[in-house]
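User: My collaborator sent over this chain with a note saying "see what the structure looks like." That's all I know about it. Can you take a look?
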Amino acid sequence: MKCFLLVSVAFFTATGAFSQQADCSDIFISEYVEGTQNNKAIELYNPTNQPIDLNAGDYKMGRDRDGAGNPMLLPITGIIEPYGTRVFVLDKRNPNGTGNEVPVDDQLLAVADTFLNPVYVQSFSPMYFNGDDSFVLVKGTATILDIIGKIGEDPGGGWWEPGDPNTAWWTEDNTLIRRAAVKKGVLSNPGVFDPSAEWDSLPANTFDNLGTHTCDCLIPESVSEFNEPELAVFPNPIAQGELSLKSNKEIRGYAVYSASGSLVTRREELGNVRYYSVALPEAVTGVYFIEVWFADGSRIHRKLLAR
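Assistant: Without extra context I'll predict from the sequence alone. Here is the result:
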C-alpha cells in the first residue's frame, strides 16, 4: 500500500521547538549517495546507547523535488542498534532492467538494509533525489531531525561551497559522509546550505563506507580530545604534484581518487607513521579526494585541489 505525506514549506521553516535538541539524542543522516543512474542511498546513524525502532518512532524521510517546497516523506521501518547504521537504497533490483529501471550497483545491493520506492511516480518519488533536491528526515509530524540542502530552493546542478570559485557541485554525482564531530542533524531549514561545513565529499559511486559510521558520540567527552584524529593535508591546493600528511595519530595508509572516482594512487601500509609525503603520478589541474586510514581503524576524507 502506498503511503506518503506532503508537507508545506511553512512547516519546515519554523524553528522554535527544534533548536534545543541535545547532541547524540536522535538519529541523523550519516551518508548520502547520489551516484550515476539509480545509485541512490541514504545511511542513518543512531548516536545513542539504545536501539531505535523507526516504525514506533514514526520516522519519515524523502526529497523536496526541484525546490518545490513540499517534501515527499516516506515512512521508514527497521531497528537501528546503538551507535549503528541502517542503509536505505532505491529499490531497483531487476538485473535485466533498462532505462529508468537500470539496477543499482552490485556493491550497493550488498550493503542495503532496506529497499524503498520501487515505482517512480512524479508526485511520489521521495528516493529519486538528484543533486538539486534537498533531502529531509522527520520524526512524527513536527520534528525535523536533519536536512541536506535547503527546502524550497533549486540550486541548479547541486549545492556547493559558498564563495569558492574552484568548487564543484557537492550534492550531484557525489557521496557525502558526515564528519565524526557532527553529533546531530540540521534541525531547521538553513538560510544558506554549505555542504563543506559538516560533510566530506567523495567521488560518484563510492559505496565502501556504507554500513558503518565514525562519530564522536561514541567517544566519552572526557577523552575525545585525545582520541579524535587530527589530519593536516598541505599544501592544498597541491603544489607540483606533491602534498604532505601530518597527524596526531599513526597513519596506516591512504588512497587518492580523481573527481571521476578513478584511483590515482594508494598505499595500504605505511608502517604507522605520523608524517608522510605523497607524490601524485599525475598532477592534472582539478579536484581530487584523499582517504586516510589510521592504526586504530578510523578514517578521514579530504578534498584536494590541483592548480
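A starting point for your reply to your collaborator: The domain at 5-218 is CATH 2.60.40.1260 (Immunoglobulin-like).
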